[in-house]
Automatic annotation (TrEMBL):
One Pfam family from the record: TfoX_C
Domain of life, per lineage: Bacteria
PANTHER family in UniProt: PROTEIN SXY (PTHR36121)
InterPro entries registered for this protein in UniProt: TfoX-like, TfoX_C
Annotated protein name in UniProt: Transcriptional regulator
Domain TfoX C-terminal positions: 6-79
Length: 130
C-alpha cells in the first residue's frame, strides 16, 4: 500500500502481508471484510496476532483498533477460531501420531524403580567363558 492508500491501524509489516494476499486498498479490505482478510494472511503462512484482526476491523469502521467494541471483538475471535481451524497445517508442521501409552505398575520392594529392559538376547557379561 502506498502512502495514499495507507490503512488506519495497519503498520508496514501487516500492510505487506495484506498486499501479498491481494488486499491493497481500503476498498479491497471493505469488500473482503476483516475476518476474511485475517484468514488470508494466516493461509499465506504468516503468523498474525489477534491485534491484526482488531486493526482490520478498526480500519473498516474508521476507528482505532482498541475502540472496536468488546462484543464485536468476541464475535471476530470466535469466527476466526472456526475459520483458522479449517486451514491445513503447513508442510513439515504436522504432529506425529502419538504412540499408545502403557502404564507399568511395579510390585515388591523396588517401588519407583525402573524395570530392567529385555532386549531379547542374553547379557554377554553374565555368561563369559574366560
Amino acid at each position: 500500500m502506498s502512502e495514499g492508500n495507507k490503512l488506519r491501524n495497519i503498520g508496514p509489516k501487516s500492510a505487506a502481508w495484506l498486499r501479498q494476499t491481494g488486499i491493497r486498498t481500503h476498498e479491497d479490505l471493505v469488500a473482503v471484510g476483516a475476518l476474511a482478510a485475517f484468514v488470508r494472511v494466516k493461509r499465506a503462512g504468516f503468523k498474525p496476532s489477534l491485534n491484526l484482526l482488531y486493526a482490520l476491523e478498526g480500519a473498516i469502521l474508521g476507528c482505532h483498533w482498541q475502540d472496536v467494541p468488546d462484543e464485536r471483538r468476541n464475535e471476530l475471535v470466535a469466527a476466526a477460531g472456526e475459520e483458522v481451524a479449517k486451514l491445513p497445517l503447513p508442510k513439515g508442521k504436522r504432529m506425529p501420531a502419538a504412540a499408545p501409552v502403557k502404564t507399568v505398575h511395579l510390585d515388591g520392594d523396588d517401588e519407583g524403580a525402573m524395570a530392567e529392559p529385555d532386549f531379547g538376547f542374553d547379557d554377554p557379561s553374565s555368561s563369559r567363558d574366560d
